[in-house]
Amino acid sequence: MTAGRYQFIASTSLIALIFLCLGWELWWAPLKPGGSWMTLKAVLLLAPLFGILRGKRYTYKWTSLFIQFYLLEGLTRATSDSGLSQKLAIAETALAAIVFVATILYIRATRPTAEEKAVQSS
Which of 68, 52, 50 is nearest to 60 (CA)? Predict the structure, then answer.
């Protein structure tokens, strides 16, 4: 696959994760009725969004580390919650894993060759 395809997969799953986090904490199964401060976790996902959409390699690098918090939260709530919240946590886990894998594959697909490294260091 090409870097463009990995960028598309990372972008769409990140956007889907943002909407999932917003819907989960505002309407579908919030921690407190009427919504909670947990919606801020969706706002934090906006930080890497524009770099991911533009294909900035550095953003992909730190996003691969950052997204693991969402993977951890999804796994924790998938094993501790029940009902709709558990299903949403499983979806969050799946989306975070897709973002993680797509960012790693994008980083590998866009790494500079030995020739490019030699030109940069000269």
Answer: 52
Per the structure, the count of domains in the chain is 1
Whole-angstrom Cα Rg for the chain: 17
Residue 88's contacts (CB-CB under 8 Å, 6 or more residues apart) are 20, 24, 28, 29
Q: How many Cβ atoms from other residues are within 10 Å of residue 80's Cβ?
A: 10
Q: How far apart are CA 76 and CA 53, in angstroms?
A: 29
Please state, in angstroms and rounded to a whole number, the distance separating the CA atoms of residues 78 and 86. 5
- Tell me which residue range forms the domain holding 68: 3-121
Rounded to an integer, what distance in angstroms lies between the CA atom of residue 62 and that of residue 48?
8
In whole angstroms, give the CA distance from residue 106 to residue 3: 5
Per residue in 97-106, pLDDT (tens digit) is 999 999 999 9
pLDDT at residue 62 greater than cutoff 90? yes
Average pLDDT score over residue span 87-112: 96
The pTM of this model reads 0.89
Lookup: tokens for 122 = 């000269």
